């Protein structure tokens, strides 16, 4: 069982990532960042998700804005609250601190392997929002790169974006932070849009999840119904939504479900049309540069859906 620190901006798929990570890892903490919604909302949403599921995991709030640009959010996909759809219960919990970066640095130093990686006790950082907190932690403590088994990222992609033609939301929202992380020397797994768009949740899947009948499954079904509709409206597609963030959790907890290839990946910081793009050397044209990222190319969609349904069923047991 890996240990995980989950950095997120809930967000529908972030909430589901929390539910998965809590069941399939030792989840040491959840840190929040500005992204899908303002920090105050993403922190609330992380707390609400854990509260609903009866999970005792500390939440530490982090960066309220990206390193350089102003904060930008995604109400078109996630609603103004960041968790549009279900009726949210009254919050009875509070964040453990507003020092997510401090918490990440201290936890990795206390629990990560040093100075070399210890394969028997992997500690992973799973990052499924803009990479601001992760970059600040690595900048303060570059040794984290070697103490972590790795960082599994939902962000970027090979070939297409979703906020611009080239850029995916999490990288687009804080490209400078992404650059710090991608050049940190840490072991990186990138679950980008080319991968996550293979894990589509359709209406029949939402019905199956609703049929599980427990409150966490109902909450998830309400989230997914809203999310699939928002995707359909924003991108003129069928009512189905990609389960982006769960892919990054599964890359750590169920690595056999995801096929990756080593690639050299850089973050575009200056392009007129491409700022925030993950530039992937698909054909090794820069053979002088060593691969810095395990890029996800394929996910076993049906098996991943089974894991999700079994996990949600377990919250009723
Ligand atoms: C990413 O952006 C957010 O909307 C999702 O939570 C996911 O992390 C997909 O581009
Ligand atoms: Ca997210």
UniProtKB/TrEMBL annotation:
Leading EC class: hydrolase
UniProt keyword Transcription, yes or no: no
EC number in record: 3.2.2.8
InterPro entries for this protein: I/U_nuclsd_hydro_CS (IPR015910), Inosine/uridine_hydrolase_dom (IPR001910), IUNH (IPR023186), Ribo_hydro-like (IPR036452)
Keywords from the named record: Glycosidase, Hydrolase
CDD domains attached to this UniProt entry: nuc_hydro_IU_UC_XIUA
One Pfam family recorded for the sequence: IU_nuc_hydro
Any one Gene Ontology BP term: purine nucleoside catabolic process
Domain Inosine/uridine-preferring nucleoside hydrolase: 4-304
Protein name: Ribosylpyrimidine nucleosidase
Organism, scientific name: Truepera radiovictrix (strain DSM 17093 / CIP 108686 / LMG 22925 / RQ-24)
Lineage per the UniProt record: Bacteria, Thermotogati, Deinococcota, Deinococci, Trueperales
């Amino acid at each position: 069982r890996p240990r995980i620190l989950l950095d997120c901006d809930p967000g529908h798929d972030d909430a589901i990532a929390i539910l998965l990570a809590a069941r399939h890892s030792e989840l040491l903490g959840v840190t929040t960042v500005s992204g899908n919604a303002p920090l105050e909302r993403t922190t609330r949403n992380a707390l609400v998700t854990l509260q609903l599921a009866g999970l005792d995991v500390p939440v530490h709030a982090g960066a309220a804005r990206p390193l350089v640009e102003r904060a930008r959010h995604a109400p078109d996909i996630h609603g103004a609250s960041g968790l549009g759809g279900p009726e949210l219960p009254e919050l009875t919990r509070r964040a453990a601190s507003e020092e997510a970066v401090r918490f990440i640095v201290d936890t990795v130093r206390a629990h990560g392997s040093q100075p070399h990686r210890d394969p028997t006790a992997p500690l992973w950082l799973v990052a499924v929002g803009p990479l601001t907190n992760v970059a600040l932690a690595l900048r303060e403590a570059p040794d984290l790169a070697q103490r972590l088994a790795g960082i599994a990222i939902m962000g970027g992609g090979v070939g297409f974006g979703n906020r611009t033609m080239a850029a995916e939301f999490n990288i687009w929202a804080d490209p400078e932070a992404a650059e710090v992380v991608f050049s940190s020397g840490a072991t990186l797994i990138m679950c980008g849009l080319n991968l996550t768009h293979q894990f589509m949740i359709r209406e029949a899947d939402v019905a199956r999840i609703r049929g599980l009948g427990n409150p966490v499954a109902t909450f998830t079904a309400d989230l997914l119904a809203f999310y699939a509709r928002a995707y359909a409206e924003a991108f003129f597609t069928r009512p189905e939504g990609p389960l982006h963030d769960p892919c990054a959790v599964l890359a750590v907890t169920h690595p056999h479900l995801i096929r990756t290839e080593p690639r050299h990946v850089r973050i575009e910081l200056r392009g007129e049309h491409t700022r925030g793009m993950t530039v992937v050397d698909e054909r090794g044209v820069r053979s002088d540069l060593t691969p810095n990222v395990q890029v996800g190319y394929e996910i076993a969609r049906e098996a991943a859906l089974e894991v999700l349904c079994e996990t949600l069923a377990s919250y009723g047991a």
